[in-house]
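Subject: sequence -> structure tokens, single chain

Hey, anyone have a minute? Need the predicted structure for the following. Not urgent.
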Amino acid sequence: MIIRDACPADSDRLMAIEQHAPQGRGVQLQSERRHFFVRADRFSRTICLVAEDEHHQALLGVMCAALQPLICGGQPALGAMVFDWRANGQAASGLKRHMFELWQALRGQIQAAGADFIFGYVKADNERSLSLSRRIGAQVCDTVDCLLFPVRRPPLRVDLGVARIETAPAALTATARREMLQDLFPLDTGPEDGKVKMKITAGRSSVKIYDASGDQQHRVLHVPAVYRLARPLLQPLRQLAALPHIPKTGDVVRSFFFTGLDLADNRDWPVLLESARRLAKHEGADTLGLCLSRKDPDYALLARHSRYRLPYHLVCLPLASSHLPASPTHFDIRNL
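Reply:
Had a minute. Here:
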């Protein structure tokens, strides 16, 4: 077994590993990417390593990290966000040892780059990964919920005439002051990729809409029986009422996300939300998401409007510095 840098020629084999790792326990989703490295392409500096069985010419696993200049404790720092940690479940034997050696190699390169700490997001119900994180000395620094808002629902009674839509580059790249004060706010936003579709402003508040579906979508692999039975009954009624969309096996789920939220006045939120819903419905999106720390001062208000909450723990491992991010942390939309 050797450990080496991943290369574009590995993409198809890594995508095959990805397809054997569906997400979710109820509705199972399979990630479909334009190529495996679309997440790595969002950042200016990345490390992507693979473990390879030279004898059988098989990839055993992959791990990536993005080296991100960011804010921590009010000061510039270098964090390493670990992502795309995938193991080949089809490997014959020794997978745990291979993945541990791969992790050691990745950690070594991160330390050599001078990173102050390593961080990543782990689903709150993934006890196995959380246990492994604690074993190597990492700790939970925050909990970030992915709030999912229904797209198809009765419209809110708001005056959309007060909403202003902007698509100019200057508006899409502007940063809200509140974001800059939170730990993990990025000092390098990476290459421009055109995924921020627009900025919606209402009163003194604003939010941007992010669409990553051009690079990465999710296909439904499994739907629980209760949803399969309800779907043919509810689908015809959706022409008459704003009922939720129930996907069937094989459907592609497209999601838009809020980012850059600057909520100066809570009364502006219904206008921002309804404007985004109508855009998402027009563009054929199935869900609207917002990733937000539970300690964020606006969390309670925004969570009340969401239908589902998917909790993720922010797990951090100190390296060159003992100072770790404090909640509420900023969620970089590129980390999706």
